[in-house]
Amino acid sequence: MKKLLNILITLALLGALGWTLWRGFAHQREREDEKKKEEAAKAEEAKKGEPEPFVVKIEKDKAKALALEKGEPEKAELKPQRVAYGRVLDPTPIVSLDGELAAAEAALAASRAEFERTQALLKSGEGMSRKVAETAEAQFRGDEIKSDGLRRKAQIEWGAMVSLDAVKRREFVEQLVRGESALVRVDLLAGDALAEMPASARFAVLGRDEETITVSTIAPAADTDAKTQAQGFLLRVDRPKFALRPGMAVTAWLALPAEAQHGFAIPRSAVLRHDGRTWVFIQEEEEKFVRKPITLVAPLDGEKGWFVADGGSIKADDLIVEVGAQALLSEELKAQGGGEKE
Fold it and tell me: Going by CATH, does the domain composed of 55-77+262-336 fall within 2.40.420.20?
């Protein structure tokens, strides 16, 4: 009986100890839960006091003072294209080649006339020695071979850019010298290639990205870039908007003969460049503007701005801030407590 009583007392002590430990752990868990709730409440309260990222809230009077202009994006189409990079070429090699061709053609014309004269005299028996006639023929054939060789060289190096017609070629060379025309060499990215010739092309000079220049003639380059092994093209432009100096770096857009891509034309004034990305402001509510990232595919002709593909962050019924976007960015950064980054 005494032994049983000791066992019951031991069990009671163990039960009391277990209950005490359980209460301690439960109390500690309750305190941790309360602490987490307090921290979450504080975080939520702090969050309420912070401005939303990429959002600007401006009262109507202030928005009016900023002279904001808004509009829905205009629908646009863009033919499938490839981007190529290159430079404006020095016209000196073509000028030199034209000089060589002109001299060879003049010599050929003279030797041909002499050959025809000696042949006529030889046939009429008017005292023309056969040796003189043969010498005239040899000179004519030599000049003919030299002239044909220079023409083939021009075709190999410059293709359709250099006309075999002397008058047209000389006119083009004069335009190059006066700066009224220019030649540009561009290459696709490494590993890229086109099965067909581009239907059209435009390019922009580095530093003047928004002033695209339309190309008048496209021809395949005679060689391949030794470093990149990329496919190259020669572009001719007549009457460019500004002087194109040899060595200027360019970015070209080569349009392919395929179905056009659908999207929107975004005015240049609406586009912001910030933190290494491009953005636009969208008015979501009367006093709320949201900054959204966009991807600029290519500049459009004329004053249409940039092409943005359909299916991105821009929708047809969006109200885009076309004038005053920079002012909104400044207001956003002020609210965030930081300065504007370039």
Answer: yes
